[in-house]
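In response to reviewer comment 3 from the previous cycle, which asked for concrete evidence that the modeling workflow produces usable outputs, we include below a single protein chain processed end to end. The sequence was submitted unchanged, and the resulting structure tokens are shown without manual editing.
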Amino acid sequence: MLSIIQAAGWPIWPLILCSILAVALILERLFQLQTNKVFPPKVMEQAMEATRRGFPSEESLHQLESAGLLGPVLASGLRCLQKNPQASDEDVKTSMEMSGRIAAHHLERYLPTLGTIASVAPLLGLLGTVVGMIEIFGASTPAANQPAQLAHGISVALYNTAFGLIVAIPTLMFWRYFRGIADRHLLALEVSAERFARHVVQLRN
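The workflow returned the following structure tokens.
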């Protein structure tokens, strides 16, 4: 591996940094976008059952606020009523929508960075290709023939092109995969929040 890095020359180092960053972000998103971390089991049923028995206690609200990403969205509507018992139904929904935007931000966290790496890696590979071609043309002089330098220029060009694609292709695939998961979770959050908001409205009436 070290010999490949040496043959590829200095342009490969930005690609190596991109690959390390991409792997770290992919592992982080694989962990954070798990369904049970976004929607802890039975959190919706527990929240609805707690409100049927009256306004939840402070301890129950704290537990709900720490329950994944859905819990804080549901708790925000109850917090709105706690601060202002006369709040309108629209105020409750608005409070939950604001929390939903925060949850959406957490779902999409680091996805722009992954997309950027997927876009930049082929360009960095192309940069390495250009550097290799410059070395090749620099070695092709009428005065002297330097096969070693020609071989080095070719290796720089090919290794960087290949490594740029090796980094970009899986990163792009994971970006699309995480994008789909985030969109599905966001839709499920919206449906759950709307259902809970209607439940709270019915209890108030």
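Residues 2-204 form one domain. We consider this sufficient to address the reviewer's concern, and the full set will be provided in the supplementary archive.
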